[in-house]
Here is the input.
Amino acid sequence: MHLQFIGSGDAFGSGGRFNTCFHVKGERANFLIDCGASSLIALKRWQVDLNAIRHILITHFHADHFGGIPFFMLDAQFFSKRTEPLTIAGPAGLGKWYERFMETSFPGSSGTKQRFELSLVELTPRETACVGELKVTPFQAIHGNPGGPFFAYRIEAEGRTLAYTGDTEWTDELIEAGRGADLFIAEAYFYDKKVKLHLDLASLAARLPAIQPRRLVLTHMSDDMLSRLPGIPYETAEDGKVVEI
Here is the structure.
């Protein structure tokens, strides 16, 4: 399998990067992790076959991670002419947030009957669910109200394990989510500045001995982090980068 960083940026366009969206493709697996507001543009820039995507896993409902869904859905209906089923999975409240985003973006669109089967699947922290060929275990992230709809993910597919922190301040949930993963994608919003709801590199680096991923890639970086890239001893994401899992 390989993963392409369709978008590796934050909510504010730091470094001119697209919003968060990762595309994972294997022999059978074909899915997105998050679909931020700019994702349809970025997917088309990297010439991704949109109709081949089978699942979209959402970490939370902020626009830089979920705001691309209305554009993806309308393109699927009217331009890509999708006929294959699509599953969108995410935290509790997914159905209501889906309708809200669709109606805010394109009034009346949430009631449109798609030409393809759409499944909205709400996941529960620490309960492993089968999403098609994927085994997906969400972990509770801290990116808003305690216990709110914010996830980190551990995903198993085709004999490989992929983990992603989502947006979160440090929580020990990330140790189990990422432990021994073939690829661990981690937010590193600041270098060592501690802020609520976001992860800094210093906090992550201190816990890496407990996580021990086979490969670590940092993403969702602010201008502070991007300005320090030449001196950072860890692999970092950029838009379009492909990583083999």
The longest strand covers residues 134-140. The domain at 2-244 is CATH 3.60.15.10 (Metallo-beta-lactamase; Chain A). The radius of gyration is 17 Å.
